[in-house]
Design brief:
mainly alpha, 117 residues
Length: 117
């Protein structure tokens, strides 16, 4: 049974999410997915939040995105090796940043900003 709290103009439901305290917190990818759903699909976001499906969904997407990102980075480093870090640290950092940005863009387009909800 749902409990309600009266306010000056409305009666609001007391919604308490039962997210377990030991649950994995959302990382960069999980938070991006949550923001995407909230801004582009607010009704679906609200429904998922009330039915306690939002955070499990974001954690699944987060895990898939992290695995895809790691595989992409491994592939990019293999196919386009960075310069020697000891010889030219700035070139190495620039190169790795470019690879990271490319991998994140692919993950965002494939998994995070995917319309399938």
């Amino acid at each position: 049974m749902m409990n309600y709290t009266p306010t000056q103009m409305f009666v609001l439901p007391n919604i308490i999410l039962s997210d377990p305290p030991d649950a994995e917190p959302l990382n960069h990818f999980g938070m991006m997915r949550k923001r995407f759903l909230k801004s582009n699909y607010p009704a679906h976001y609200g429904k998922m939040l009330v039915h306690e499906e939002l955070y499990p969904h974001c954690r699944i997407v987060q895990q898939q995105a992290q695995e895809r990102f790691d595989k992409l980075m491994e592939h990019f480093v293999f196919t386009n090796p960075p310069p020697n870090k000891a010889v030219d640290g700035f070139a190495w950092a620039s190169h790795m940043g470019m690879l990271k940005d490319t991998a994140e863009e692919i993950v965002r387009s494939e998994l995070i900003y995917n319309k399938a909800v």
